[in-house]
Amino acid sequence: MTKGPLPGLADTDRRNRKVALTTLSVALFMGGAAWAAVPLYKMFCQATGFGGTPRQVDSASPTRGERTLTVRFDANTSGDLNWTFAPEANSIRLQTGETATIFYRVTNHSKHSVTGMATYNVTPDQAGPYFNKISCFCFTEQTLAPGETIDMPVVFYLDPALEKDAVMKLTEGVTLSYTFVPVRQPKNAPVAARDSGTPKL
Which band of pLDDT confidence, cut at 50, 70 and 90, is reported for residue 4? Predict the structure, then answer.
C-alpha cells in the first residue's frame, strides 16, 4: 500500500520555503545597503566636514580672512604596503581663504606593480568643515610600477568662516593626515598624475 504525504507536511514545506526566501531577501537587502553605505557616508562627510573629513569644493575661496594658521601634513602606509610615502613639506603657514598646493611623494619599493588608495582626515575634528579641498588623490586607486616614484598634489584652503567658530578661535593649527592602504582587486586604476614641480605655497 502506497502511503501519501503526512497531513500538514506540504504546508510545513511551504512555510519553510517562505521563511528561507524572506531571510534571503533580507540578507540581500542588508548587503546592498551596507555596500551603498560606504560611498554615501563618504559623500556626506565630504559635504559636511563630519568627523574631521575635509570638504570637497570646486573652486578657490572668494575672500581672504584675517587669521594665519599652521597646517601640518602627515603620511602613513599600511604595514603590508611596501611603499614610502611622505609630504614634501612638513608644514606651512596659511592665511584663511588662501589657496595652497602641497605635494606628497610616494615610491613603490616592491618588485611588482602595486595598487593603493589613500584615506584621509583632518584634526582637530572641528576643522573638518573649514578644510576645503579643491583637488586631491584621496579615494582614487593609484598604481605604481616597480621602483616608481610619483608626486601627488593636494590643492586646498581654510575657509575664513572658521574665524567665527568658538572652538577654532582657540586653535592655532590643523593637521591633514593621509594613510595609504593596498587595493586587493584594482578596478582599472589610473596612475597618479606625474608632477615633479615645486610645491606652490
Answer: low
Mean pLDDT of 175-200: 65
The CATH number assigned to the domain holding 112 equals: 2.60.370.10
Distance CA 106, CA 150 (A): 6
The domain total for the chain is 2
Mean of pLDDT over the chain: 80
Cα(115)–Cα(140) distance, integer angstroms: 10
Proportion of the chain above pLDDT 70, given as a percent: 65
pLDDT at 58: 81
* Start-to-end CA span in the chain (Å): 94
Whether residues 98 and 157 share a domain: the answer is: yes
Q: Is 170 exposed, middle or buried (0-12, 13-18, 19+ CB in 10 A)?
A: exposed
Report d(CA 119, CA 121) in Å as an integer: 7
Indicate if 56 and 75 belong to the same structural domain: yes
In this structure, are 150 and 62 located in the same domain? yes
| pLDDT (mean) for 106-121 | 95
Within a domain: 105: yes
